[in-house]
Amino acid sequence: MNKTKQDIFEYNRRWAEEQLQHNPHFFETLSANQTPDYLYIGCSDSRVTAEEMMGMKLGEVFVHRNIANMVNPLDINAASVVGYAVDHLKVKHIVVCGHYNCGGIKAAMQPCDYGALNPWLRNIRDVYRLHREELDAIDDENIRYDRLVELNVQEQCINIIKMAEVQKRYLNEHYPTVHGWVFDIRSGRLKDLGIDFERILKDIQKIYDLTDRQWAVPQTKI
To answer: Which processes are annotated in GO (biological process) (predicted)?
Structure first.
C-alpha cells in the first residue's frame, strides 16, 4: 500500500515517541555527535537500504548513495563524502556495495541513448571495456549481468584506493580498509567479494601513489 505524506509523518511521530520511551536521552545523545566505523557507498535503488540489511543503528554508518554505487574521481559529491568520512569521521571501513538486478548496470549494457544519464553510464561502460574479454566469454546474459555488477564494485573500490585521503591516513593509522560487497536482492544475503585491499595498494603504488612514502602493510588489525 502506498503511504501518503500524512502516513509518513504519523509514523515518524510514533517512532520518535517509542525511542524516548526506551531511552529518554536518545535524541540528546544522537544529536551530540556521530562516530561511525563504516562509510557505506551504495546504489540509490529503493529496494536496498544500508542500515536495515547491515543491522546498523542510527549513527553507526555514514551513507552515500547514487546510481550503480559509483565513485567517479570527477564527482565532487562522492569525493567530498569520502574525504569527510576519512579525515573527519575517521571511519575504519569503506564499503562499496552493489546489488544484483541493478538498473544502472543493466542500462549500461544496452545500446540505448539515455540522454542526461549517458555521461554517468559511460563510467559503467568503461568497466565493461576493461573486462570485456571475461564478460563476452559468458554466454548466459543474466550471469554476465551479475558479473558486471561485481566487477563494477571492484573498480569503484580501486577508485577509492587511488584517493589521497585514503592513502595518507592508511599510512599513518592503517585505516581505513576498503571492502567490496554485493547485495543479492533475490535472497536478501550480502556477498563479500573478497577485495584484497593490501594487494591492490601494492599493485597500484607505482602509478597512483600520492604520498611519496613507502606503503607499509600492518601486521595486525582490529
So the answer is: carbon utilization; cellular response to carbon dioxide; cellular response to oxidative stress
